[in-house]
Design a protein that fits this description.
Methane Monooxygenase Hydroxylase, Chain G, domain 1, 3 helices, elongated
Length: about 90
Amino acid sequence: MANIKSAKKRVLIAEANRQRNVAFKTSIKTALKKALALAASDDKEALNAAISKAYQLCDKAVSKGILHKNTAARKKSRLVLAIKKIAK
């Protein structure tokens, strides 16, 4: 571990940021899984709300720098493709 006081502080801050980012990414994964689960049901309103929430979380992650914009676009695209495939 670092000896300099500011370096010790940066280590603590970096760990806090890492945990926050992991939690945010986990919430995105949960939202995507929830939307996929709703795709099999007949409740279109709940499905649209779940897709909207997943999109919102992906976009927020991009604005916070947690996800790259292409990664978020890929996740959203794959979600829609999977839902269309289930709907057939």
